[in-house]
Amino acid sequence: MDSLTEPMIIALAGSLLSLKLLATWSHIRNAAQGLRDGRLCTTISHSNMVCSEGDQANTQALKAEQYEAWDELQDVLESMSGRFITLQEEYLHAVFKTPIFGFSQDFEARWDKDAGCIHVRSASRVGISDLGSNSQRIEKIRYLMQ
Fold it and tell me: What pTM value is reported for the model?
């Protein structure tokens, strides 16, 4: 081996181990905030979260004029390998794992019967960027519910 190969292998292994440790840590943290005053938590402090509710909303709510849309959302989340943590009549919390390293990401939804929509919030548990994965998840859900 040349003189650079061994340090490069060690640096790569250390980087991969660090990412795996962060992913493991993400399993014990929880980014789900539940409902506050009957609404999804709207605090958006990093680019690792999207939310359709509140002054800082950065995505649109899902259309849901009929109760069937709430059931359909649950089916879509299951088909996308979401694991339900809380499932209530008008609120749900599911967890998704990212491919490769398995980072946990929280998805929350609140069915707003009066407005005929489902408000959504998807957030990464660690880091300040999600490379667009939460936004992509919401758009995929929106597409699958059409």
Answer: 0.78
In the block, residue with structure tokens 């992509």: 136
Three-point CA angle 13, 18, 23, nearest 5°: 125
In which domain, by residue range, is 46 found? 5-144
Task: Give the residue from 54, 73, 50 showing the smallest Cα distance to 63.
Answer: 73
Whole-angstrom distance, CA of residue 60 vs CA of residue 51? 8
Question: What is the per-residue pLDDT across 41-57, written as a single tens digit (0 to 9) for each?
Answer: 876 666 788 999 988 88
List the beta bridge partners of residue 40: 35
Helix (H, G, I), strand (E, B) or coil at 46: coil
Total domains, the chain: 1
- 119: Cα within 13 Å, side-chain hemisphere: 20
- For position 46, which CATH number holds? 3.30.310.80
C-alpha to C-alpha distance for 127 and 79, rounded to whole angstroms: 26
